[in-house]
Amino acid sequence: MPQLIPSQYLRAFALAVSYTVLLPLSPSARAAAITSAKITEFVADNRDGIVDEDGNQSDWLEIWNASGVAGDLDGWHLTDDPTNLKKWTLPAIPITTGGYVVIFASGKDRSDPAGEPHANFRIQSDAGGYLALVKPDGVTITTVFKNYPKQFADTAYGLGFDTATPLTFLVAGAQAKWHVPTGPVAGWTETKFNDAAWSAGATGIGYDINWTETELNTSYDHLFGAGGDVEDMMRSKNPSIYIRIPFEVPNPDGIGKLKLRMKWDDGFVTHLNGTEFERQGAPANPAWNSSATNGNRNETDAKTFFEFPVDQGGLVQGTNVLAIQGLNSSAFNSDVLFVPELTGIFQDIEKLVTGFFVEPTPGTENGFRIEGIVADTKVEPDRGFYDSPIQVAITTSTPEATIRYTTDASTPTLSNGSTYTAPITISHTTTLRASAFKTGFGRREIDTHTYIFVDDVLAQSGAAPPGWPTNSVNGQVFNYGMDPNIVNHANPNIGGDKQVKDALTAIPTMSIVTDQANLTGPSTGIYTNPQSDGIEWERESHLELLFPPGYVDPDGNPTGFASPAGLRIRGGFSRKPENPKHSFRLFFRDEYGNGRLNYRLFGDEGADEFDKFDLRTPQNYSWSLGGDSRNSFMRDI
């Protein structure tokens, strides 16, 4: 895909939601109505991302449950048509508290709530598209992306938050009601249960009879709140205790990432507004007199807060209740402890901001948001062969973008290269690389243009060019320059200035460009570590096919091509470092910006699409290895 690189000024935006997707919910959890949901991101050109059940890389979108309660999306609508707000109706897909659901926009129209949901439309990738999420009334739009910008391959577009406010609903010392049951108590976890007859006390709740006043006091007594010591009512009578802690929430919309923080000894089952969401050391079906199943808990762990996500049930407007069944390892155990806290994050769903996301995150919170993507640079005149100085102009259509360029084949960045202010004079063989930058924006692939001046090629000496090794590296030898015995030969049947020039401009030239360290770095260079192989030894590069002036391709291609690619050394015997000339293999991948090269390299008789190809250098009987003159460069087939 086009490489999107966030600048150092990018801001992080995280949707405060849980990771869970399409988890089955209990009847009590699904009873809560989903009144608020948002489309948080979508991908309109999915080439190398998630696949659907048919193995297709379909477009997709993600819906976030912003209501603060669990439930389903029954009756909600998705549309890409502002004149038809009920274009596709969602089935009763369960969605957890602050959770996500991923919908494929494949056009396959599948709405089985137990299966993989597919909308009956695809998402437009061209600029000016429309995408909306509509409430079950078919009128109220909760999210709309209208006239959105052009979408890019494997890049998400969606919503982020500028701010996130931490919330604390319960801390140690919160007022609670507790009860040691003598039999079953119906509905005790529900919000509206009448607990007026229960004992009152502040958390923590528990008891400890084995404490001594020493410099190292290991007892739990200092953790109990006023009225929270339950020894008289619980010890020797029941290993279970019921605890209810009420708290108020004026409006649950926009609240997510609920977390239970718990100190406990020995086990517990927790419910939020009647829905169980976490248990530790509890039997499968806890009864009113159940004990913990994991024995006595380590006291150091018991006095340490552990965190658990609240992804079932959810908050309601007004009074909420955290209900805990505390479990001791036995009714006669010497201690027991329960200290709960409940926290969350609030994000104003009315103050969402749109943008691109460098890394799509289907089913999880969004990451880095960028305001846009800088348009590609445009370089004039084009790459190719020249015999006199030229003035090269670089432009971008993105206002206020800064163009950075290099002329040494290195990657232009904000800290490497020069800032473009006026046309550049190029009078010798040069690789020009350019890219545009803007604060808060990502950028696409680097523009690479190679300009060849044939006289420079002939004049190359045997000395190492600037930046290249002057001696062997890791035993790898180097051989630079043109052979003067050929370039300056008096016999035109063997060489000479004119003959070499004519030969260089008789056929197209391939130019491979990569950072110097990718080739010759002692530890990173593929040329200086030629016997290393595999994808770990593939380096990002750029490939150009340059037509000489007046060249007419016999295969009918009107021009050459330029494409990003991955570069490796290939071969067997030829990998030996005493050989100065190695073969290359080029790979075309989405991660570099072009998943396949579409070009008729071999005319009508060969393929016109390539995932990879080799640039092979014959080694047996070759000048580069042993100086043998018997190499065969042409064969009859």
Can you offer a commentary on this structure?
- The protein is mainly beta and 637 residues long.
- The chain contains 7 helices and 41 strands.
- The strands form 10 sheets. The protein has a 7-stranded antiparallel β-sheet with strand order 1-24-23-11-2-3-8, with no helix packed on it. Strands 14-13-16-21-18-19 form a 6-stranded antiparallel β-sheet, with no helix packed on it. Strands 12, 15, 17, 20 and 22 form a 5-stranded antiparallel β-sheet that branches.
- The chain is elongated and about 115 Å long.
Quick overview:
It contains 7 helices and 41 strands. The chain has 637 residues and is mostly beta strands.
Oligomer: single chain
The biggest sheet, with number of strands, parallel, antiparallel or mixed sense and barrel status, is: 7 strands, antiparallel
Gap from first CA to last CA: 39 Å
Strand order in the sheet with the most strands: 1-24-23-11-2-3-8
Shape annotation: elongated
Share in helix = under 10%
What structural category arises from helix and sheet content?
Answer: mainly beta
* Mean pLDDT across every amino acid position: 88
